[in-house]
Amino acid sequence: MKKNKIIFWIATGIIFLFEGMMPLGTLLFAPEYTTVGTKALGYPDYFAYALIICKILGATALIIPKLNPKVKEWAYAGLTFNLIFAFISHAVVDGHIGYMVMPIVIGAILAFSYTYNLKIKAND
Questions:
Q1: Which domain holds residue 40?
Q2: Which pLDDT band, with edges at 50, 70 and 90, does 1 fall under?
């Protein structure tokens, strides 16, 4: 039980840092780079801001312990779709393998978080 919680919190912490804090940090401390990633893929500027808001909300929902389970499910789903579409966008537009691997790695960590969240809930 304790091992499951440790794995869950490590994975969820990594997700929170990459999907929540990094976009927020970019927006607050380096706003000139906010749209660099989405502009290179051909998306409009407003799409980057919408992604940042959704990522922050989703990542925050994962770390709130007593949040409604349905909200957490939606957060996991939203972050998963984001990572899938990031992979597809990079595969189709620039084909850069480094940019395609990152969403897969973060997605695997997100899957660990989700799996261990289910294990913890099953034992409660």
A1: 2-123
A2: confident
